[in-house]
Design brief:
Blueprint lengths: L10 H26 L7 H12 L3 H28 L4 H25 L5 H25 L10 H13 L3 H4 L2 H31 L3 H34 L5 H10 L2 H16 L1
Helix pairs in contact: 1-5, 1-8, 1-9, 2-3, 3-4, 3-5, 4-5, 4-9, 6-8, 9-10
Length: 279
């Protein structure tokens, strides 16, 4: 989900990444709307507010909204900066670090909101700023590693692309195009996951309140942990094959044989069965 990069990614990689991150984006957006009366998974509305405040010459508010937009931009910048600078050293580290930073931001909002938040305007502005930086990190990461195929913090482009694809599917030749069908599946999964996340946030916020950000962080940990599990499983299998090829047993091979049974013992049992059957 995180290891593969750009054109080496499969449709399954993008769907898994898009579904989980879109769910968290929908949850974040509705939680911030209910708590702070502000959207934080995109900045389209904030550009409109910025223009309105400029026309009113309300420069203090212009500075606040301008900072929000910049932090969303800066989140995308930081994500891609990490990816392109650390990708050669460790793809997993480069792709997981932006999500770790996002989890840190969300945990900060959750802890501060649960124990220290006094509902002042200044506090609200700062917490919204932190959340916009967090969603900028997420959107920048998913777009960067998927070659701009996956963007999960807003649905404007997703809805537009689906409208175009569905119009193309009115012709049979496009319905048989596997790439277009896969693209439609990806966009539909992102849209559905985003809506489910928003509904989940709306239903649970009144019970969880700021603790909903802990749930979101847990979802992002699943994204990080999935690839960590895959990496360790592949390393385990590689070590096991090495021990069998070069006849140098190691701890991993010993544990594998204990769990699954030794391949040599299996071969002996198969020979015994054949001999019994022949008699």
């Amino acid at each position: 989900m995180l290891r593969n990069y750009s054109n080496s990614r499969t449709l399954g990689d993008n769907i898994r990444l898009g579904t989980l991150t879109a769910f968290t984006a929908g949850t974040i957006n509705i939680a911030s709307l209910l708590i702070f009366l502000s959207f934080t998974s995109n900045v389209t509305g904030h550009y409109a507010i910025l223009a309105a405040e400029i026309s009113k010459a309300n420069w203090a508010q212009v500075a606040v909204v301008g900072l929000w937009i910049f932090l969303f931009f800066f989140g995308g910048f930081v994500s891609n900066f990490i990816v392109i600078n650390f990708n050669k050293k460790s793809k997993y580290f480069a792709h997981a670090m932006p999500l770790i930073l996002e989890i840190g931001c969300l945990l900060f909002v959750g802890i501060y909101g649960q124990f220290y938040y006094r509902k002042s305007l200044e506090e609200t502005q700062y917490l919204v700023a932190v959340m916009l930086f967090a969603t900028g990190l997420q959107n920048g990461l998913t777009a960067s590693i998927s070659n701009f195929s996956v963007k999960t913090t807003h649905l404007t482009g997703t809805t537009t692309d689906l409208g175009i694809l569905f119009s193309m599917f009115t012709q049979k030749k496009f319905r048989k195009n596997g790439e277009l069908v896969g693209r439609a599946k990806l966009l539909m999964s992102i849209m559905l996951a985003y809506v489910l996340g928003a509904v989940f946030s709306g239903l649970t916020y009144y019970y969880l309140e700021f603790r909903v950000f802990y749930v979101i962080s847990l979802c992002l940990l699943v994204v990080i942990g999935y690839d960590a599990y895959k990496i360790h499983l592949r390393h385990f299998n590689t070590q096991y094959r090495y021990s069998k090829i070069y006849k140098k047993p190691n701890l991993l091979a010993f544990l594998y044989d204990k769990i699954h049974g030794s391949s040599e013992i299996k071969q002996k049992n198969e020979k015994k069965r054949k001999l019994i059957f022949e008699e």
